[in-house]
Amino acid sequence: MIITLKKETPQEEIDRLIDQFEEKGLRVNIIQGINFNIFGLVGDTTQLDERIIQANEWVDTVQRIQVPYKLANRVFHPEDTIVDVAGIPVGGKEKIAMIAGPCAVEGDEIICEIAKEVKEAGASMLRGGAYKPRTSPYAFQGLGSEGIKYLNHARKETGLPVVSELMSVDKVDEFAEHVDLIQIGARNMQNFDLLKAVGHINKPILLKRGMSATIEEWIMCAEYILSNGNPNVILCERGIRTFENYTRNTLDLAVIPIIKEKTHLPIIIDPSHATGNWKLVKAMSLAAIAAGADGLIVEVHCHPEQAYSDGMQSLKPEKYKELVQEARLVARAVGRDL
Predict the structure, then answer these.
(1) Tell me, what's the pLDDT at 1?
(2) Residue ranges of the domains in the chain?
(3) Are 311 and 281 in contact (CB under 8 A)?
(4) Segment 149-206, tens digit of pLDDT
(5) What does DSSP assign to residue 314?
(6) Distance, CA of 219 to CA of 263 (rounded, Å)
(7) Structural contact between residues 227 and 246, judged by C-beta atoms closer than 8 angstroms
(8) 71-103 residue pLDDT tens
(9) Residues 198/166, Cβ–Cβ less than 8 Å
(10) CATH fold of 83-333, please?
(11) CA distance 186 to 34
(12) Residue 243 in contact with residue 271, Cβ under 8 Å?
């Protein structure tokens, strides 16, 4: 429920209303505007009669929210959220975040080499999986804590913040200490214990859309993180499963304006997992920027033919450099920059 108070409402009346709602077990989120003060009530608002609330002389409007998510809702938070990732802003209307790196961290030397290449090409963050969820139990599962150590070395060498995927609650402390942007992958989108756990830390979270998730299910997973106290959530569209087999997944670019309308959260696009084919990555990246994406996360490998995982969807550094150069032109055409 959203309650708009008149600008001249006395502070004692504001405090009285807050106490009244909190006594009913509701959480009150306050947005102070130029002309109005807005209460966003989170909880079971069925116990409230909006006609009684509207009878208060200081109340301007009362509106019930039909969607189940409250904290992610743009109505509660009209301004775009800008998430700070170690000094790199993600969201807003100016900069587009460029994240690049290999699917998996394969060793110290190679991750540092790739980090230097993507930084020179124009990336602002380094991605790399230390713990890898794989369809096959026989596939490379990642280097674990050793991989996190190599990512930290690459960050020290290049200054790039690092992005890596968290798979289990028992690793939250390790990631909170060593990873700048913690990724919750598509397979863990509805791992609610994990979402609650990262909601209790003050670290940016990159929440990927599940392979068969609706937009509302995805936003509700972000709501889990937000409702547990962590406001630093970035959404990531990485393609959804359809009947089409010409691509690895189907990239849903229409989700960008939908997320922008329904929520205040930034959204980035993963064209690598969406297409599964390096030849398609640049085109989908440029289309994503034109559609309003706040960033791209692209897989890059110096030797994709030797990659431990996802080599066929990884760009070589020189191809990534071309992508960045063209992406900058598209970004400027829509009033933004990289």
Answers:
(1) 87
(2) 2-63, 83-333
(3) no
(4) 999 999 999 999 999 999 999 999 999 999 999 999 999 999 999 999 999 999 999 9
(5) P
(6) 8
(7) no
(8) 999 988 889 999 999 999 999 999 999 999 999
(9) yes
(10) TIM Barrel (3.20.20)
(11) 40
(12) no
